[in-house]
Amino acid sequence: MSAREAELAANLERVRARVADAERTAGREPGSVSLVVVTKFFPASDVRLLAGLGVTDVGENRHPEARDKKADCEDLGLSWHYIGGLQSNKAGQVAAYADVVESVDRAKLLARLDRAAAERGVALEVLLQVGLDSGRTDGAEVGADRAGVEPEDLPALADAVTACEHLVLAGLMAVAPLGEDPATAFDRLAGIRAGFLADHPGATTCSAGMSGDLEQAVAAGATHVRVGSAILGSRPSTH
Q1: pLDDT at 147
Q2: Is the N-terminal amide bond of 64 cis, ω within 30° of 0?
Q3: In this structure, is the dihedral angle defined by the CA atoms of residues 201, 134, 207 and 166, taken in order, positive or negative?
Q4: Cα torsion 9, 12, 17, 23: sign
Q5: At what angle do helices 182-199 and 154-162 cross, to 10 degrees?
Q6: 3-state secondary structure 95-158
Q7: Structural Rg of the chain based on CA atoms
Q8: Are 138 and 179 in contact (CB under 8 A)?
Q9: For residue 143, what pLDDT is reported?
Q10: What is the mean pLDDT of each run of 10 residues along the chain (239 residues)?
């Protein structure tokens, strides 16, 4: 085992233990939370090592880095999650390689995503990114730091996705606002999700929580956590 593989294995073991502890603390079923390893800025060689360590889902948020990395690792059979902000003119390009697009926050993206999924002959899973700034009680400026559809606009966006033949509404994604207790933010997400699931009971995925707040996300019902630095380390100095 190389030094890098040993480093990744040790970090991965620690994060998996954190997830398992969070599941227990929250009274969740063991193994009910999936890990998406965020590999942005890191080379395809790391993705290969992670796959060898049992990782099945990887996350990227920069195009074309994500496109090129998937092409390099096509033989691994991984599920690729695009988690970054999505420009309208890049939506079709992202949908040409992503298996899950987690950052859908406006209807303008849907036609290009749907068209690209049709060209691939796949049903593309999408998550609706919900902004959690609304409802903050800490006095912070609302809408200043995180993307996402406003909760009141979520039903219309969900309906627009379900009207697309080649898109599958899989659930929700969110990021805790900067400077706020993530437990408070994810509690708001849990409330939003309850109403969303009443209308879309099959859209059960909830992607929330990162290296610093995965425990709070699991406590609030996250089904997927997105972890990068706690597994891969600080981003390479070349970036």
Answers
A1: 81
A2: yes
A3: positive
A4: negative
A5: 50
A6: HCCCCEEEEECCHHHHHHHHHHHHHHCCCEEEEEEECCCCCCCCCCCCCCCCCCECHHHHHHHH
A7: 17
A8: yes
A9: 47
A10: 97 98 98 97 97 98 96 98 95 97 98 98 98 74 67 98 98 95 97 98 98 98 98 79
Cα 63 from Cα 70, distance rounded (Å) = 11
| Residue in the structure block whose two tokens are 């099959």 | 202
Q: Which helix (H) or strand (E) holds 239?
A: none
Tokens 């603390």 correspond to 25
Of 129, 208, 202, 116, the C-alpha closest to 167 is: 116
Tokens linked to 238: 């070349």
Q: b/e for 132-153, b at 16 or more Cβ within 10 A?
A: bbeebeeeeeeeeebbbbebeb
Distance CA 146, CA 131 (A): 7
pTM: 0.94
The Cα 37–Cα 155 span in angstroms is 29
Report yes or no: 36 and 14 within 8 Å, Cβ to Cβ. no
Residue 4 corresponds to which tokens in the numbers above?
Answer: 């890098």
Calpha distance 209→219 (Å, rounded): 10
